[in-house]
């Protein structure tokens, strides 16, 4: 039976044996036949889309995804996301909905909230944000007034759009200021403090998209206190490491913590807002921070939540609390460290000299004479997916860049070991060494060889559960 986009094809006989007659067990075969029928109707009713889903599954099997901002979603989470919870409109919160029919919806949202609180050690969790960008917008619009100053890491230095970039609503609605990185690619807390004293932000944002090192939450807290700013920790990239205790948790340093559930939690596209000790903190208008976040999502920023996505979040957050997940995160970190070491051993300049998390940033321009975009294309042409990334002192715009960002989330999900990573480093260096600024594609023979090596590695190390 065909598999579509990682959703395991269910067979009533194999996966859900019918309950013994006379025993009081629910008949789960109806769920199985629902998905089976859905797959049939897609195949028969829309062969074009069916084929695209199949092609995408095959592409993901055959390529090595080293894009740091994603991870393969657990098949069971994909199934929950494709569930009939999509049919329910459920404005409000468990027990306080504006629509009827929410008996199971309430349970699934409460399950997700409880699991989020347990996984992150949070006092409060909101599982309704449609994305991490929305979560950040909620924090800003709930706590600030239009025109208030905010301070975050510059987009060019590895900050995120939603932290005040001029092209983003956060940069249009608020007076956004940025701090950069030191020449060795590290956050310079003295500069953060100096910028904070200069601009007196109402909100200080700590969070990164391309930063390979550990963040010092206590240092950010001290600076926020010095200028009387709220502190937002956006842990979107490192959420899994934080859950597993492999990166310090910001939970009791930051006033608010935001994350997505799809980058390092192997969950659906969506966001979370979390509060630690600060949940009961009073705002000038007398509300608590918890109340401000609750109404900041609904009705301030969003309407009805995506309940099917919340169901998938519940699955991912349950998984995140298991020893197996902690093991995966330990591999995420050790594989990234190995990749940095192996690339450096082959003469590649690694920004900041290594990594503490899942990210490795390489200066491909000085190492191979290829731009970031050239390297991205040459590697994709051979089945290795990365993204171009600006590096400290970059003279190229973001669309070209001098660096490349690697991430190890997918390598861990594929069960690669250190020897496999050494081979990945070999492949990357072989491909980039054969690439020149004038000719971003390898010659046909070298390309075919590289593709064969990537395909063999992918076949040997399939994505877990796919
Ligand atoms: C990716 C990212 C986001 C945005 O996440 P979406 O869910 O795609 O909106 C926000 N903050 C940081 C630090 C990110 O890396």
Helix fraction? 40-55%
Ends: how far apart?
Answer: 14 Å
* Domains, number: 2
Q: With helices defined by DSSP (H or I, 4 residues minimum), what is the helix count? A: 18
CATH architecture of the largest domain: 3-Layer(aba) Sandwich
Biggest sheet: strands side by side, in what order?
4-10-9-8-7-5-6
Which molecules are bound besides the chains? pyridoxal-5'-phosphate
- Any idea what the shape is? globular
Instruction: Specify the CATH homologous superfamily of the largest domain.
Output: Type I PLP-dependent aspartate aminotransferase-like (Major domain)
β-sheet strand percentage: 5-15%
Largest sheet: 7 strands, mixed
Task: Give the class from helix and strand content and strand pairing.
Answer: alpha/beta
Average pLDDT, all residues: 93
Q: What is the CATH class designation of the largest domain?
A: Alpha Beta
Rg measurement, Å: 23 Å
How many individual β-strands? 15
Low-confidence stretches: 1-23
- Can you tell me the CATH topology of the largest domain? Aspartate Aminotransferase, domain 2
Family: Belongs to the SHMT family.
Subunit structure: Homodimer.
Domain Serine hydroxymethyltransferase-like: 44-427
EC number: 2.1.2.1
